[in-house]
Specification:
- It is built from 15 helices and eight strands.
- Helix content is 67%, strand content 9%.
- It starts with 7 loop residues before the first helix and ends with a helix.
- Helix 5 links the parallel strand 6 and strand 7.
- The chain has an eight-stranded mixed sheet, with helices on both faces.
- It has 523 residues and is an alpha/beta fold.
- Helix 8 packs parallel to helix 9, helix 9 runs antiparallel to helix 10 and helix 9 packs antiparallel against helix 13.
- It has two domains: 195 residues, Rossmann fold; 200 residues.
């Protein structure tokens, strides 16, 4: 409905660009690390409609002119009220919409579903000869922000003083584009029209407005669909001003340029982030592999240590048991002798186990340091960390300290077990006739005690080693990364960043297509 003042092709490309901008803004808002910069301003600029402010005195035919310009025909509902007297003392804004009306103070906004309102808004001001003081400021505010001012005169009368005072201000102070509409030409003679045109040109020249744009119109002829209404010329001017040529094309190109600048910035950010994360991912994967291999290596080594300790301990316990049984069969003062043997066993066992643990752990530490050196010599690790050996040395130092702590804890736990040696076995002196019976009973209790102590030792070794290995893994992870958990999450987001980059690149391609379309001669 209505006659379009903007080319269909422009509306199509503008719609594409608007959808792209909204989608792009949504993407930025959902990813806070992307630069928003002034893209909100671009959206505001995009949504700013090209506006016409229509000015003229009462009964100059403004309302009829506007209805006809928008394509309202005879028998259809008028948008702007037409009558013999002043129809409104308010500012009336007409935009494309669903037919609702909003009133706010001295302004009325009317929404009409007309093709002719696509991309524009028309602002109708109260008659110049009826503008009260409060209206004058509002009217001037709209004039300052207008894209085009249409000054409507009755073809018979262009001589009103207030009109020309306002026109002079518009031209000299506001420096705005103005076109002149000589309306109701059907009511004026050719001589009256020529006189009015000549006078209008003279007055314009006096205020330094050369070659004014003047259009003769008849709303009556247009509304009745009769020829020579003059509206085709007005529409062609508007169409060329905003719909198909330089101004609209320039506006779209400016918006495209601003969006592209933002897109390029964010594309660069994503490229850098992806490149960095690709390197960090290789580093991360190397660390994960190192830690897995390291855990396997340590498991094997500590299993060997555990076997050595258990075998040695079992062997010594068996020797101690045999000595105790022999005392029962052959000696007097069995209790004192056994207590002496147990004390000697604990002392020797503690020293020897300490040496064995220390020797094995020293071997593992040396092997760990060699493995760490190899890890930090890897190309992707060097690429991630540079040549600085700080982290390498820090990790080796941490490993040293951690193994020292582990050795101390392990020795303490084993000594606790050693100190419990045969505590549950009662040793008493008996006469010779009872020794054989007693020795069998003691042997059974000694075997039970040996079994219990071996279980305790095995549990202690397993618990301490598992705790140590888990703690060491965490320690190594946190030494290799500034923040291991955050780093893992960032690596997991790599695919998300790649998807974002794909979308950003697609925006770039769409911008090129739209710009190419609006630059073509057929636009």
């Amino acid at each position: 409905m209505g006659i379009s003042l903007v080319s269909d092709k422009f509306k199509k490309e503008e719609s594409k660009l608007k959808a792209l901008l909204n989608d792009y803004l949504d993407l930025i808002n959902r990813n806070s690390f992307l630069i928003k910069d002034k893209i909100d301003e671009v959206k505001s600029e995009f949504e700013t409609l090209f506006n016409f402010v229509v000015v003229g005195k009462v009964k100059a035919g403004k309302s009829s002119f506007l209805n006809a310009l928008l394509g309202i025909k005879e028998g259809e509902e008028n948008i702007f009220e037409v009558g013999p007297g002043p129809q409104t003392s308010k500012i009336t804004i007409v935009r494309k919409g669903q037919g609702n009306v909003e009133t706010k103070g001295d302004m009325v906004t009317i929404y009409k579903d007309l093709d002719s309102l696509e991309g524009i808004e028309i602002i109708d001001t109260p008659g110049t000869d009826t503008i009260m003081e409060k209206h004058e400021k509002i009217t001037r505010d709209f004039l300052e922000n207008s894209n085009l001012i249409m000054f409507v005169f009755d073809s018979k009368n262009i001589y009103t003083k207030t009109d020309w005072e306002l026109i002079e201000k518009i031209i000299k102070d506001l420096k705005k584009d103005v076109i002149f509409i000589l309306s109701q030409k059907d009511r004026a003679s050719q001589e009256e029209i020529e006189t009015a045109k000549k006078e209008l040109i003279n007055r314009c020249n006096k205020i330094d407005l050369k070659d004014p744009k003047i259009f003769l119109t008849s709303a009556k002829l247009e509304i009745e669909s009769k020829p020579d209404s003059g509206f085709q010329q007005v529409r062609e001017y508007i169409f060329n001003e905003i719909g198909s040529h330089d101004k609209k094309r320039m506006k779209l190109k400016t918006i495209i340029g601003k969006i592209r600048t933002s897109v390029d910035q964010n594309s660069k950010i994503l490229n850098e982030k992806i490149e960095e994360l690709e390197v960090r991912k290789r580093y991360y994967e190397s660390v994960e592999l190192f830690l897995q291999e390291n855990q396997s290596f340590l498991n094997e080594r500590f299993e060997s240590i555990s076997d050595t300790i258990k075998n040695y301990y079992l062997s010594k316990l068996t020797d101690l048991k045999d000595s105790i049984l022999n005392f029962y069969k052959t000696q007097k003062k069995v209790k004192e002798l056994i207590e002496y043997e147990i004390t000697k066993f604990i002392k020797e066992g503690s020293n020897i186990l300490e040496e064995k643990i220390k020797r094995e752990i020293t071997y593992i530490i040396d092997e760990e340091k060699r493995r760490i050196d190899k890890f930090f010599d890897k190309e992707e690790v060097v690429e991630r960390l540079g040549k600085d050996s700080f982290l390498n040395e820090k990790l080796k130092s941490d490993v040293d300290k951690f193994f020292d702590d582990f050795q101390e804890d392990l020795e303490k736990e084993i000594n606790t077990i050693l100190n419990r040696t045969f505590k549950t076995v009662t040793f008493k002196n008996k006469n010779l006739l009872n020794r054989l019976y007693i020795s069998k009973s003691v042997q059974k209790r000694l075997d039970n005690e040996i079994s219990n102590q071996m279980k305790a030792l095995e549990n202690t070794l397993r618990t301490n080693v598992e705790s140590f290995l888990n703690s060491l893994k965490v320690k190594m992870q946190t030494s290799m990364f500034e923040n291991y958990e955050a780093f893992k999450n960032e690596i997991n987001n790599l695919e998300h960043f790649k998807d974002l980059k794909g979308k950003i690149d697609e925006y770039s391609r769409q911008l090129e297509d739209i710009e190419s379309s609006i630059s073509s001669k057929s636009f």
